[in-house]
Request: fold
Amino acid sequence: MTELVFKTAAEIADLIASKEISSQEVTKAFYDRAEALNPQTNSYLYQSRENAMAAAVSADKAQAEGKILSILHGVPIAVKDNLTTTDAPTTSGSKILEGWVPQYDATVVKKLRASGLPILGKTNLDEFAMGSSTEYSAFGPSRNPWDLDRIPGGSGGGSSSAVAGHLAPIAIGSDTGGSIRYPAAVTGSVGAKPTYGAVSRYGLIALASSLDQIGPVSNTVLDSALLQDVISGHDPHDSTSLKDSLGSMTDAVKNADVKGLRVGIVKQLSKDGFQPGVKACFDDTIAKLTAQGVEVVEVDCPSFEYAIAAYYLILPAEASSNLAKFDSVRFGLRVAPEGNPTIERVMAATREAGFGPEVKRRIILGTYALSSGYYDAYYGSAQKVRTLIQQDLEKAFSQVDVLLTPTAPTTAFKIGEKVNDPIAMYLNDVATIPANLAGIPGMSVPNGLAQEDGLPSGVQILAPAMQDAQMYRVGAIIEKLYTDEWGSPLIAKAPKLEVK
Ligand code: GLN
Reply:
């Protein structure tokens, strides 16, 4: 039998449901491994054996009383540290929140608890989810299990490295411009950003409210589907949360077949700017789909060219407003200035000491873009580009069911390589940003190893809003193409981290 920690969440859930193992056994196995390996990967900012085991005991007790609380009953999970938890500090990767323990659980956290999933700990992220590598975390970068000198993607690199390194079977991420999908691509795992509003954001520390979405991180498409089904649904606490159900993602995966499938390749995201090995993996995926009888056409999305520029105006504008609440009065850090401690001076000293350089950069950029006299030129124009991107996508989806692009321009880069070059860092988001600007679902699925460095590549699947099931269907089809080739998902080929 495969060691417990190398099993998928679906397999673990089945073993628990059939009483072959207990939630306590699984939770202990993952907790032990996570505790031993975290010094190498820095996936978790906070771990609590006591909390995790108490939840596992409750899950086992519920089951003994005949209550299976969900399709993932008893399966342990890691949660990104920008979701509030009453039993663990929540930092959002920032010094300004260090030591803050929230008064309420995020809706997603509440759902996990009510569904019988023990929480193993809180995972690392770039400060306030701004970044693509976790190098902007105030608590040091996480490391990629495929090569510990490389980034695990960001901002959700704690969750991706935890899942890819089997320090957790599944995890929760948040995606504002790619922070679930990009880390999934560079760690050979699966990550999905649901349709905007499909999952409640109540208790998610907001980065850019018109773009933020919570979603699953896993080693297989089925595991992400199971988790999305557990966490989605309307929440009166989040006025943007959708009233309508999007159906069962689990069923979409289980019933996936290629019949009648039409796929679009975005002209602007299929040619230049991709590492040759990543491009070769993408071409290979397209060739495999074509061989299955899938119709593939090229679609034109000319405004994608301006997506990064528009995003890096809209996001800082919203972030500068969302981060104004960290004022030294209500949460976390408070720094006493030299001299007379007026409220303004305490606030300034706290924000100066508490925020890192990338956060300050974006606050300044956002405030500038919103300032009177410049508002129309910057923020207004960016919003117009956003509309154009939505129109391009609408047109594309009138021709095809889903769009495919490489998820990331390159495989995982070395820690330190781009950290001092914000523009180079922003370019990693070229393929993932349009989905957030348009509110549509997107997911990344592993599609091979780049020939030049042997590191994982990911293919991104984009579907029309509310058609998450279609995205999961195609995710399952693509995963199967590679499962047939490798005998199992890509992760089976991943180097197994050794406890030192
Ligand atoms: N890399 C993007 C950024 O820095 C992604 C952020 C996110 O999705 N949270 O803004």
User: Anything to note?
Assistant: The radius of gyration is 21 Å. Residues 148 and 496 are 12 Å apart (CA to CA). The mean pLDDT is 95.
